[in-house]
Amino acid sequence: MRKAMTWQWASVWPVWLLAALGAVLVAVLQPTDGIVWLPIVLGTCTLTAFAIQLGGPTVPGLVDRLAAALFGAIVVLAVASAILVPFTAL
Predict the structure, then answer these.
(1) Distance (Å, whole) CA 54 – CA 10
(2) pTM
(3) 76 in Cβ contact with 12 (< 8 Å)
């Protein structure tokens, strides 16, 4: 049972990694329009989280894992937003 729980929660961190990778790509490729692109990264993370969680066995805890994946992505992108705001042409 311990190994199954480890696998279930291991399905959360790829979404965080995708958010971090997306934030870095936005910062490098579009630093002045980063505030426009970061919500697109969040949408991609949301769809990816749903795909990962629903692609495997839907055992109890699905909502908790989905919430953890999305909350982590939001935190990563909030930090990226705080860093990118000074470079944004408002």
Answers:
(1) 14
(2) 0.85
(3) no
Alpha-carbon distance 69 to 48, whole Å?
10
HSE, side-chain direction, 13 A CA sphere, residue 2: 0
Greatest C-alpha distance within the chain = 52
DSSP assignment of 27-78 equals HHH-GGGHHHHHHHHHHHHHHHHHHHHHHS---TTHHHHHHHHHHHHHHHHH
Q: Which long-range contacts (CB under 8 A, 24 or more apart) does 21-25 make?
A: 22/77, 23/76, 23/77, 23/79, 23/80
Token pair of 51, please?
């795909």
Structure tokens at 23: 């934030």
Per-residue pLDDT tens over the stretch 38-59: 999 999 999 999 999 888 777 7
